[in-house]
Design brief:
The chain contains four helices and no strands. It has one domain. The protein is an all-alpha fold and 112 residues long.
């Protein structure tokens, strides 16, 4: 069974567009991993990196299947899928790191 066939089974049972599914899966995985690693110092960055690596693996498998079908790789679709997957985890990472940095500075000032 090809990677595309597995993804097709999922999209056939969930009434969500392919691009939208990337958005939801990306933020879902990031949220779950950030919660799982919340007590670790680099937990948010580790969660983001994990989503990024999983997305790259997904695109490598997509590119392999696409190449077998057409003899070419659809680079534009890979870029769009990666942007859709990483957009909200990236925004969440930036905001959460800013909040944590701000809160840690407030605590330092309160101690002094």
């Amino acid at each position: 069974m090809k990677w595309y066939d597995i993804k097709r089974m999922v999209t056939d049972h969930i009434p969500i567009a392919h691009d939208t599914l990337h958005v939801h899966v990306g933020i879902l995985i990031f949220t779950l991993l950030a919660y799982r690693w919340r007590r670790r110092r680099a937990g948010l960055v580790k969660a983001w990196m994990t989503v990024f690596v999983l997305q790259l693996c997904n695109e490598m498998l997509d590119a392999r299947d696409w190449y077998k079908w057409t003899g070419n790789i659809n680079w534009w679709e890979s870029v769009v899928d990666t942007i859709n997957t990483m957009l909200w985890p990236t925004i969440a990472l930036i905001i959460l790191l800013q909040v944590l940095w701000r809160d840690s500075n407030i605590r330092d000032e309160d101690i002094l």
